Amino acid sequence: MANFSFKTQIWRVKDANWMLGRKAQWNRVEGILLSNQMNKVELSSIKKYFMKGEWSPDTKYAPRGGDLFLYSPKHSIEIYDTMLECSDSQIKINIFRKGVFNKLLSGLFHFLTDLSEDEKTQLLAHIMNGQTEYTEDKFIVNGCEVSVFPEQLSSHINGYFWSYLRGVKSLLNKKNGGSVFDFSLQLPLWMSSIRYLDKWDFSKDFKRAHLLDIFVAIAHYIPHHNSNSGAQEKARFVKDFRRLANDMGFSNDLVASTWKLAQESKEDEWVDHLYQCTKDEDSYAWDSSDFALFTNLVYRSKVYQGDMVDAIYQRYAKNGFIADGHVFNQSYIDVTELLTQDFIAELAVSNSKAILGRLTRLELSEKFMGTSKVSFSLDIIAIDCKGNHEREVPRILIIERPTDFYVAADARRYCANRQFMVDDIKAETGIELVRYFGFDQNPILERTYPPRPQDYLEYEKEMERPFYNASYLPLKTGSTAFILNDENEYVVVPDRPTIL
Questions:
Q1: Which residue in 41, 162, 246, 441 has the most C-beta neighbors within 10 A?
Q2: Is 0.85 surpassed by the pTM of this model?
Q3: Are residues 434 and 485 in the same domain?
C-alpha cells in the first residue's frame, strides 16, 4: 500500500470528528463521480485515498497525477511541491503538473479546497514558475527540462484554449455557484495565449461554429437573478471578458473575426423555424410536455398569499416584460376539460361541479422575447377553489400561448427570461412556481426519487428549474395544443362577466 511521507500530518484518520467531516464531503464527491459513470473499482480506489491517504500502486485505477492533489485533504504550495518531488521522470512530472493545472478550474476543486483567493493566485503562479502570462519557456524540475505552461494550448478542439472557454460557458449556464474567481484568475493567462495559437496549427482543425456558440453566450450574456449564488460575480466576469476582448482585441484573425460575428448576432433566427403539426400528424407533440414550448408552471402550496395573480403580474411589469399598450383584463373560464384526473384529485373537487378559473392574460414584451418579430402571451389561471370542496387548495397555472408552432427552446434570451421570472417571483413575493416532472418516470433513464448518488448531477441540473416529482401532468395536453386563437380556446363561463 502506497502513501506519502506526510500522510499522518493531513489525513487525521484517528480523529473521529475529522473522519465524519471527511465522510460528509465524500458523499457529494461520490455522487459527482458516479454521475460521470466512474466504475465501482476506480471509485473504491479513489475513496480509499480520499479517506485514508492510501492507494494500491499496482492497479490501473490508482489515483495519479492531478487526482493525488485534488483529493488531498489540504491544498498548498508545500503539498504540491512534496507530491511533485515524487515524480521521478519527465513523463510523470508532466502528468502531475498538467493534472493539477487542469483541476484548478474544476467544480470539485472549488468544492473541496479551502484555499483563499490569494493562495490560489500564488499556487497558479508557482505551478508556472512565477509566470502569470502564457510563455513557451522551459525550466528544470527534478532534474528534467519541462515547459513552464503545463498544458497543450490547442489540439483539434481540445487543449487549454478550448477547455477554458467550455468551462466559461458551463459556468455561465449554471444558475448557482461555480468557481468564478478561478476563471477570472486565468482570464489574463488565456488572453495572452491567443497570439501563440498559430504555432499550434490552430487553423488546421478550427471549428468556427463551436467557437461562435461559446462567444455568443458571452457577448450576449443574460445574467441570472441576483438571488442565485454567484450571479453578480458572473456578471462582473463577463464585463471583464468583454472589456479585454473589445479594448485589447484578439491577436488571432480567426478568433477576432468570430468574436465580431458573435457581437453582431441577433439571436432571432429561431422565429423562422416552425414545427407545423396537427394532433393526427404528431400526437406526441400535442400530448407530451417533453416537447412543449413551455412546461406549465404551477403554484401548489397549501397557503394563500394574498392576490397572488396580481403579485405575479406586477413582477412582470416591474421588469419591463409586459408589452406596451397591453390592457390588463380578466375573465372566468371553465377549466374542467383541460385538467388531468390526477391533478383534479389534488383539489378534492366534487365530481358534480365544474372547475372554474380566473384567467389573466398578459402579452410579453420585446425585451422578454429577445426579438421584435414575434410576441407570446402568458395565461395566468387561478383555479377557483372556494365552494367546490371541503378544503381549499390554492392552485395557479401559467400556460404559454404562442401564436404559431415556434420552437422556443432555441430562443436563448427567451428561455433565460423564463427562468429569471421564476426566480424573481419567488425572491420578491415568496410565491414558488414549479413544474410537474417525473424525475423517476423516464422510460430510458433508470433514476429514483429521492435521487441516488449516481443521479446527483442530473438532479442538480433538473432542479435549476424547480420541479414537483409526479408521474402525471396538470394538463391533458402539452402547450402545442394552446396556440393562441386556435380552435382550442378556453370556454368562457357565461355567468361570470369579464372583469375589466
A1: 162
A2: yes
A3: yes
